[in-house]
Amino acid sequence: MRPDDLAALHRRQFLRFLAGSPLLAPLASAQQLPPLASPKDAFSVMDFAEPARLALPPAHWGYLATGVDDNATLEANLAGFQRIQLRPRRLVDSSKPDLKTELFGTVWDSPIFLCPVGHQKAFHPQGELAVARAAQKTASLQVLSTVTAFPLEEVAKARGTPPWFQLYMPTTWAGTEKLVRRVEAAGCPVLVWTVDVLAGRNAETAERFRLTDTRDCTLCHTSARGGARDLPMLDGIEGGINPPSATWEFVDRLKKLTAMKLVLKGIETREDARLCREHGVDAIVVSNHGGRATEDSRPTIDSLPEVVDGVGGRIPVLVDGGFRRGTDVYKALASGARAVGIGRPYIYGLAAFGQEGVERVVEILRAELTLVMKQCGTPAIRQITPNSIARAR
Ligand SMILES: Cc1cc2nc3c(=O)[nH]c(=O)nc-3n(C[C@H](O)[C@H](O)[C@H](O)COP(=O)(O)O)c2cc1C
Fold it and tell me: Model-level pTM greater than 0.85?
């Protein structure tokens, strides 16, 4: 795919659908509304995509919105939800919906969490601090990236409590120890090791966007090809990150190194789910990095059931990738996920409106999830089961 407005994909599909339907044609003009003046004006989380695109320079938009190669995994994540339908049950008292979700003894207001997304100053000057304040205000779980633009300690202060910390493992073990000790000292309860980009990736569309950016990138970056100058969590750590030599033995070493809970992010198969269990991993995030790692992966909503099966109920399974509607979240919960992560949607909100944009994204998704839970006669999360959905064959 050429450089293109990927984030407006949904909107374009919808407009095409409207254009083909004489009955609904008058509605098409409602899609041509003026740009959002306030986060409150957004109907759905994808309403933030276009304002985000307009707010960002092309290189940053390209980094945010795109996937790898031809963006097939990115698009598959979105398309996967269309093959699953709901099985609503009627005449259930749904007057008191309850979205509360427990993870490692902490209860969150909803199962929707904020995925680690690096370099958030590229999207808003307040970056991770604005997200931390939004997470606090909405009582949402925030996972902070190793390549955060603000130091963990400042983010923890802004949020009131330490977030979970996502680990991009340094290439030296000494560096890993140093980073993990710092994360422990900040009081993070959970370490989330991302294992899906250890082999590298081909972020081709982002590169194409970068070439359309006429600014002098070296004013802020280490080279014209990017490279952040400011990575506060890797300060004083020699070498790079993401050793391609990492194996399951590294999981054992990490388990020995720290008492924090250890979560692996980027698991997509039953076999690896079993290995997680055998190596004492405390939870899994089913993820393909939002289509930013391996091309031609399955949508995560399709990988989820076999991972859930592989862990046999012993550890929580979380999932992310392409979640844009409350119904998407519902389908994952019905497939056995304990919690559901969003990446791009809250960054669209951040880029467009800062903290308030992030809050509104969370609010919209929660409202949509609440509605579908009530509609389907499953007003509490524990009532959502595989019987709540039907997967197309
Ligand atoms: C701009 C961007 C930066 C990301 N940075 C990280 C990161 O630093 N660490 C990580 O584990 N995942 C990172 N991810 C992946 C997200 O954590 C998450 O898996 C993905 O965004 C979920 O898909 P979605 O964007 O379709 O919601 C990033 C994603 C985006 C879009």
Answer: yes
